[in-house]
Queue: 2 jobs
Job 1
Amino acid sequence: MVVAESKPVTEILEMIKEFKKVVVAGCKGCVTVCNSGGEKEVGILASELRLARKVAGNDLEVVEYTCERQCDPEYIEPLDDLVKDADAVVSIACSVGPQYIAARYPFLPVFPGLNTVFIGGAAEHGVWKEYCQACGQCIIGDFGGLCPVARCAKSLMNGPCGGSSGGKCEVGKGTIDCIWHLIYERLKNLGQLSKLENPWGFKNWSTSRDGGPRTMIREELRK
Amino acid sequence: MTLTAGSKLEKILKSGQKAVTCECGPPRGADAEHFRHKASYLKECADAVNVTDNQTAVVRFCSLAACRILMDMGIEPVMQMVTRDMNRIALQSNVLGAAALGIKNLLCLTGDHNSFGDHPQAKNVHDLDSVQLLAAVKGMRDDGKMISGTEVVGRPQMFLGAAVNPFADPFEFRVVRMAKKIKAGAQFVQTQCIYDMERFAKFMQMANDMGLTEQCYVLAGVTPFKSVGMANYMKKFVPGMLVPDSYIQRLKGVPKEKQAEEGIKIAVEQIQQLLEIKGVAGIHLMAIEWEEKAPEILKAAGLLPRPKVD
Ligand code: SF4
Ligand code: SF4
């Protein structure tokens, strides 16, 4: 899923300081799963904003709404009524959300309430880790099913660098696993260490962001 | 003796004599005089001098310019190139430019991660890794083709090197990785500074058993300790470096003002031990900001004067 975290409330307050009425829009997708942008967080953020502005002697009206998904045009339609007399929207979906809202309402200021961090998964309760950089041409089949593009600090394709120590990456002061150590151990378990003997060729990054913003088309669904 | 690039380093290694390379890092500014001064100590004692490429991810003047300065001083450079900061377009371009300037030794590295340097906010590149850079340059040199398949008109004649770190993990993979670098094009390798002799000897035995030392020259890395503080720092903070406590105890055992001298003694002993190990083809001395001590160390180790080759 897309993992996102809340921006500090002070940063959001600064963004909306000139407005009297804002809509805080959440999303029931990934950000609900990672506890940063669902119905509950919409409620919390709305109260925080109201309270802070009340304390500042400059009351703010906040409308709360949580979309089914903000990355789908049909699901942001219900905002049409809510934004009519609002000054701005704060979206706490992943950063696709505010961009969809901005595209729908050309004259309405829209602000992100979250920082979209990565594509990842939950490691334990309250801890998420990055797993993929959406390079557009998945190569993990060559590496025991583990991703060296996203999970090696240097995106190495040919084995652990000279900084790998005790299974940990040279980056992160011992908090990050060296994915190449894990790849090595896994291929050893699978009896496939020979896979690491030959130089792995040049990766094609044109399917990644390096080829420009990407579009995916499924013709059979368009009809 | 068939030569790929005909550099002095290549000739000495191929003649079977022990080679000596030293390292000289360009400064964090445009002060060429400072660099010339450091390099002048190395002129008579190294067969070739490595110029680091923004080492530890700290901005310094570029290795290509520094190599040119060395050549003007009559010193043969080994140009280091890291893949952290440049994509395949810039890397290949710099290789061609370096070859055009007459640089004949190239060391292909991935480089330290940018988070360690003076610009941790930088966007890093990592389009290629060190193994892929080796393969790219070998392809340009031997097949006359760039990565894209574009023909190279005027092939870069480079004697290709790589780094190996026998002290990083997983240990058993380190020789495999060296073999991989050789397959990709490495003709010589320089090792991370060696303090743990036992582990290095084990590594070399594996390399010998796999026949790697017959395909590639191994230059053993040596960095003299200036003080017990430096030894402790390397032990604790430099990733992938193993410093045995015995050295730390030994440095602690002498008065502060004698520690540097003791550090030099240790380095000389290390060099002598390393040269005894089967498969070691020479020494790579990295006297970080202590270049003026290189002649003393190498002389005491019996490596001076350097042989002449033509
Ligand atoms: S190889 Fe690419 S697509 Fe596959 S997990 Fe890694 S970044 Fe994602
Ligand atoms: S230590 Fe491992 S994960 Fe970290 S950069 Fe090196 S190879 Fe990649």
Job 2
Amino acid sequence: MLKTFKLGGVHPAENKFSADKAIEKLALPKSVFIPVAQHIGAPAQALVKKGDQVKVGQVIAKAGGFVSANIHSSVSGTVTKVDLATDASGYPKQGIFIEVAGDEWEECIVTDETLVERFEADSKTIIDKINEAGIVGLGGATFPTHVKLMPPPGSKAEMLIINGVECEPYLTADHRLMLEKGPELLVGIRLLMCALSVNKAYIGIENNKKDAIESLKKLCASDASIEVVPLKVKYPQGGEKQLIKAVTGREVPSGALPIAVGAVVSNVGTAFAVYEAVQKNKPLIERVVTVTGKSLSKPSNFLVRIGTPANELVEAAGGLPEDTGKIISGGPMMGKAVASLDIPVTKGTSGILIMPDPDAKRKTSQNCIRCGRCVTVCPMGLEPFLLMTVSEKQIWERAEKDCIMDCIECGSCSFTCPADRPLLDYIRLGKGKVGQIIRSRKK
Amino acid sequence: MSKLLTISPSPHVHTSDSVNKIMYRVILALVPALVWSVFMFGLDAVRVTLLAVVACMGFEYLIQRFLMKEEPKITDGSAALTGILLAFNVPASIPSWIIIIGALVAVGVGKLSFGGLGNNPFNPALVGRVFLLISFPVQMTSWPIGIHAQTDAVTTATPLAILKEGVKNGQPVADLMHNLPSSIDLLYGNMAGSMGEISAMLLLLGFAYMLWKKVISWHIPVFVLGTIFVFQGVLFLANPDKFIEPVFHLLTGGAMLGAIFMATDMVTSPMTHKGQLIFGIGIGVITVLIRNFGAYPEGISFAILIMNGFTPLINAYVKPKRFGGKK
Ligand code: SF4
Ligand code: SF4
């Protein structure tokens, strides 16, 4: 029996069209827009101004606090302006526009691709380098990695869990990375283990990526401290709490962080970025992005410079299909619908998904038939139908009592509801409101 | 891009399941038993079923259109399902006008007076059935003999009624059993009874189909039938002269129909599996109590309605197991 988390979960059609497409380097864009807030926490502060010349890897915005991350230029050329532009959030964000000229890198960055396995760095050096390199969680949550590596006093990491689950349908970026960059990934994992001073790491991978499981298993056969854990395919196994439960059987208490059960979770993309940062001095300036969709002619996995306009990715994948009805940044379960392709790839962009018209529309909501499916599939053991009702009626105490803040916004409830009720829409609303109430109480 | 893109919050994909699909799958699951009842009772079965379905849908349409002034939703399949279930719960010989009244009560009182699908606390078909049982006790309990039975009689009592009457007159159960269909007959449905309760086997087939299609989970039927079996088993072991063996109870008197198709009505049963356990056991216990000690030979309809009444309470107190331990 394959391991998995116990409570709830759904299995949407996988549609991994790009699973056998090797990662391709996308051609350099003509210009980039690099937002200064590509992470959770304080936005970074821009260090450059109009007219400045920048090189690839140069810091162009400095972390704005402890929970923040540096931003580096992903191209070389001239800063044309520092201004607002729309990103995947749909809101105008402060960022740096750079016109590309050539491809000139900072000297300290090692650009050849030979594997560098040995390292002598200690925990502090590694964390500093990760901090320097502006690494954030690449699974989509974009939490600054160095913060995770410094557990608050009183808590201690016992293990590292690498998230290779990629449970979102359609996305294959992590899958390809595990297949093609296995050795580098393992070095990255060792670096993270060293930074955390733990001597056990697990790589959780869903069983629909058998080739990746096999190849990583072979690679770490001689290293007992890193273990590949094949997992049953079930969404949302990539959720930190679900992944920890699946791999270790431990349950992160309500309201607590993974470190409460001794676990630190990092995405495979993050581990690869850590390898590049520490062993090659390379900051986080590019990432793998899946570009996919049912009617796209060439679903692909691209290695993309941060700040590249999304439409260049779609062009390279065969162009926007006629029947496009919706464009999503990220996967279909948790990704964000965007108004246009005129948005930049950022550190958190795991995929660009093009959905054809009929699939894109929501169906009209009907009466709840009280079938209980939303309850059965909720991985947090909540009662979505009830949370929706109390949010609709604005009964906030009830929403709080029924643990609305535990919702991880995985969307399993809305996905499964036969009456097409917009459960998560209302739960988000309720979460926002209850969150406000809780914060005001603390003050 | 000239065309407007859809912008909506996640998730952006949805199961292909819908309310309609669920309803039509339940209906499909009832088809084998329906075919059997046509085989057993002939055109009468067709008449009663068609009337019930058409009347339920018709009343739903009229009430939604002219009384509630909303867009009728008769195509969602729920009214048709109520019609079939109502037909399954009455004798095939029932006069047409009675079944029409039953349909009116089921849809009008049982469902729409509470606001329609999803808001009704009680199973509409059962509301209709129990109303008819109380209002027209004679017509509701004269059971036609199947076309293929070797007898001259036109109507008879159901096996449960014969037993109940006999035990009341002091006859030992074993003697009474001689004149009743064997378990095999009961299993495939060679007995007197309502259209939907006579073939346990075909109802189980429908159950298997619904489990396969994930229309319902196994919890309610298994807990209802399991409880009847265990509770009746205890009574039987205590006094085999007065109480019938448990398997007989499972195969007669609508136990299967009730457990598989009526108690599992989503709208009126608890949401969580834990709640469904309590609900199922409750129905089982009440059914056995009514059948052995109550005024009616049959009890599962009442048992389900009573437990329907407890559903909101169960939902309020039985919470799913929360991730991370908090209650
Ligand atoms: S979105 Fe929230 S309420 Fe809905 S299934 Fe996921 S965790 Fe549960
Ligand atoms: S899944 Fe939809 S119809 Fe079923 S109980 Fe939840 S909200 Fe109601």
